[in-house]
Amino acid sequence: MEQISAFNLVVGPDNIAIVTIDVPGEKMNTLRAEFVNEVKNLLSELNTLNELEGVVLVSGKPDNFVAGADIRMIEACQTAGEASQLARAGQQVMAELSSLRVPVVAAIHGACLGGGLELALACHSRVCSDSSQTQLGLPEVQLGLLPGSGGTQRLPRLIGLPGALDMILTGKSLRPRQAKKCGLVDDVVPQSILLATAVSLAKKGPQPAQPLPLKTRLLTGKLARTLIFNTARKKTLAKTQGNYPAAERILDVMETGLSSGMANGFAAEAQAFGELAMTPESAALRSLFFASTDLKKDPGSATPPVSVKRVGILGGGLMGGGIASVSATKAGLPVRIKDINDKGINHALQYAWSLLDKKVRRRHLTACERNLQMARISGGTDYRGFGQCQLVIEAVFEDLALKQKMVSEIEEHCAPGTIFASNTSSLPIAEIAREAGAPGRVIGLHYFSPVDKMPLVEVIPHAGTDAEVVSTVVALAKKQGKTPIVVGDCAGFYVNRILAPYINEAIRCLAEGEPIEHIDNALVKKGFPVGPLQLLDEVGIDIGTKIMPVLEAAYGERFAAPQSAVSAILGDDRKGRKNGRGFYLYQAKHKNPFKANKKQPDTSVYSVLGVTPRVNKPGEEIAERCLFLMLNEAARCLDENVLRSVRDGDIGAVFGIGFPPFLGGPFRYMDSLGASEVVSRLTQLAERYGERFTPCGLLQQMAKDGEFFWRKNEPVQ
């Protein structure tokens, strides 16, 4: 049987070749190693066409150009040399494409990422659609890699060094208008005329390269380059804390190419790609990518979901407004909000408007698109409109009686079979459903704040929740742009349960006299986005500590907070950022943008606690105390079936609380250390600091048997 090609060549009567990229049997176009010979044969055929006047590359997929290279190629590599050879093969194909004697134009609609953008960069011109689906970027750094098919060399020469560094070091994508403004694409047009525009551009024949703007050209000199790279290195190290080697290698490779020529740059790029592919950091980041991709296919339950056409929201506060916003803008559903007064409704509407308006200012949306999305949200102080809702999400205060009352009212005012989802962070779902007429239609749906930014949601069925309800809520969460994990109905569920001991231990360190910034810096250096005390400030000290007694009642002494310290802090009316009184100062406004994110600790906390701040323990020890309590609790959650799989545990920790991605999640990290090492370090901590560090039974058994989490526990399909 003849294999269907991923590259289809048609030459029109105008002597313009249209090469359609359409990988058979896949939703997304990705570049694979086996395509190298296919592309080389295609280029050879193009070179034999004497009448050829131009080539246009276009996708056969409805919503993507080329979404990148297939990462599974790297998994097959055993050595850095093999991975480097992959990069060299890609570089060679791109070089042959770039050296075609006729103009080559990329017609881009949808995702053009990674190897896809490197393919477009090898073309002589690029045109993209003005669709919101179109984005261009080089996200390899997010996998612990760098662009390996020439991207580190071609991009800075096309758009200038500052813009290229920003794209490659962050992995961020550009929208069509942004891409046009910086010179990444030559034109932005409606999708309906994309191919015709690309053909027209190809017919014009070879065009001289557009000169970079004067300001950008001034930054290409040796002195300016040196300054830019030195500044970039300092900023990169401050951001990565040295935990992400790819960022530093990107700078080295780009500097080599600009100072020693493209040939040396390509050689350095291929070598660095191979070496980075073998690092534990890249392996961990790739594992998260595969886990996330696998999770997207998980329906939550085997029973098909109900179609949700309209969503109701109870509560117009920060969480209610955020949930309403993602339901209307991401899921595209009509949303009806109910609050006890008009002020709450107005707050939710204003919050949704502010998020949409920000997108207009950034040119991600037009004013018309903003208005259309905003029109999906309405609200009132009664239950009018809720009769048409298939699913209602409550986001009211953490009060069991209130939530039970909400269930009763929804059953009274909504159609039979309406799903009631509670956005609770700690209350048992079974208790919320206890007095319901249809307890099988009640489920937990725990969002994280701020809802528009945090990617994770926990889906919490109680023992009697219908399987159809689970799959319906999982499907809705995905439409909202979220990553849902299904977890057990227990105090704290999964994310807050592993976060609480981590926060508790940080407060203990503070009560022992360790300085605020010393504690937080220790965890930031370990790879967390912010330290535990700053995180508590952001969440709200009153809210963050409210769950502690609930967890202590459920699980015992190991969850006991340092009560005297917590009471003293709350007694001093310290709630964190929201009232400007916490562990950090919030009054001062820095005029210097480089100092704006450098928060200053509020030293008056020490007198409240009755301690004199002094560094007594090294940062590594503080980080180990906080982190290993989290690891121990994660293992317990798996052992008690709070988690369905180690996949969900790793994704939940990384996406929910910012567990260091380069470590791959709690379970991947414990596997890298080995269960014996984890048990040994917990035992040492228990001897020094108390029984709360005693390694759980599962870890002790795994250490004895030499087991690994990822070998022993496969994801539930």
From TrEMBL:
GO terms for biological process: fatty acid beta-oxidation. It is an enzyme of class 4 (lyase). It comes from the Bacteria. Residues 311-490 form the 3-hydroxyacyl-CoA dehydrogenase NAD binding domain. Pathway: Lipid metabolism; fatty acid beta-oxidation. Residues 492-586, 622-708 form the 3-hydroxyacyl-CoA dehydrogenase C-terminal domain. InterPro entries: 3-OHacyl-CoA_DH_CS, 3-OHacyl-CoA_DH_NAD-bd, 3HC_DH_C, 6-PGluconate_DH-like_C_sf, ClpP/crotonase-like_dom_sf, Enoyl-CoA_hydra/iso, FA_oxidation_alpha_subunit, FadJ. It holds the Pfam family ECH_1. CDD domains: crotonase-like (cd06558). Keywords: Cytoplasm, Fatty acid metabolism, Isomerase, Lipid degradation, Lipid metabolism, Lyase, Multifunctional enzyme, NAD, Oxidoreductase. It catalyses: a (3S)-3-hydroxyacyl-CoA + NAD(+) = a 3-oxoacyl-CoA + NADH + H(+). In the central section; belongs to the 3-hydroxyacyl-CoA dehydrogenase family. In the N-terminal section; belongs to the enoyl-CoA hydratase/isomerase family. This is enoyl-CoA hydratase. It comes from Mangrovibacter plantisponsor.
